[in-house]
Specification:
Blueprint lengths: L16 E4 L3 H8 L8 E3 L7 E3 L8 E6 L1 H7 L1 H16 L9 E3 L8 H23 L6 H8 L7 E7 L9 E3 L3 E4 L6 E10 L2 E8 L20 E3 L1 E2 L3
Parallel strand pairs: 6-12
Antiparallel strand pairs: 1-4, 2-3, 5-11, 6-10, 7-9, 8-9, 9-10
Helix pairs in contact: 3-4, 4-5
Length: 236
């Protein structure tokens, strides 16, 4: 019997590595070391309060797989840049009021544009894993090409903000993807999902060419030519 081999959606090589839905660095930063005596509790639409006793738990990882090279060597700079931005935003989260401008060159003291591109590509990897796992109608080939060529994806935007309603509770969240399809062929016109880490929120959006959506207002993209982030309101 020949076993089927799941391929890495980025490069096509055999997939052996699972990507964390919430970045491992964020989980460790918020919850510290996880163990049997100090578990964290996982919730999704099928289960609640499932104890997680280690950061390598399969429940914390996407079912879509990557090869070890793509998940580690190729995208490690992207992950490290997000870790630095995540730490920086959470250090000022009490002052992340809607409409505030965050200058990321105060977080990235050098190579700011390069590291913000890395952040974009970090969320592109998460987005691709999310799409493949959910089986939604978005072609991830353009995602993989952007990552392989170290170029931004022209149709994926990030909007940063703060949700103050969870101040008293440490938490992380990755929402489902919400889709708006074209009626004539059911291809994706717009997609949006939320990544949240202890009150700091990133709204990740895909907007098909020619689509104009209010959600993209005040979003950030490398093509805008700015490293300033306008804080969105995610309090409702």
């Amino acid at each position: 019997m020949i076993e089927s081999i799941t391929k890495c959606w980025i490069c096509g090589e055999p997939g052996t590595s699972g990507e964390h839905k919430t970045k491992r660095s964020d989980l460790r930063s918020v919850f510290g070391e996880i163990s049997q005596s100090k578990p964290l509790f996982y919730h999704d639409d099928k289960s609640i309060n499932v104890p997680i006793k280690g950061l390598n738990s399969k429940r914390l990882k996407s079912s879509s797989v990557l090869c070890a090279k793509c998940n580690n060597e190729r995208t490690q700079p992207h992950d490290k840049s997000w870790q630095q931005l995540s730490d920086g935003l959470r250090s000022i989260k009490g002052n992340l009021k809607p409409g505030r401008v965050v200058r990321t060159n105060r977080i990235f003291r050098y190579d700011t544009s390069k590291k913000m591109l890395n952040v974009h590509l970090c969320f592109l990897k998460l987005f691709g894993c999310h799409v493949v796992e959910a089986g939604v109608n978005i072609d991830v080939q353009s995602f993989s090409q952007a990552i392989l060529n170290n170029k931004s994806h022209q149709n994926v935007y990030l909007k940063f903000g703060y949700c103050p309603s969870f101040d008293s509770t440490s938490y992380t969240e990755m929402s489902d993807i919400h889709l708006d399809d074209y009626a004539h062929d059911e291809t994706c016109a717009f997609a949006t999902w939320i990544y949240a880490i202890d009150g700091v929120v990133v709204n990740v959006m895909y907007s098909a060419p020619g689509e104009k959506r209010t959600g993209v207002v005040d979003s950030w993209h490398p093509k805008f030519g700015t490293n300033r982030l306008i804080v969105g309101d995610f309090g409702e």
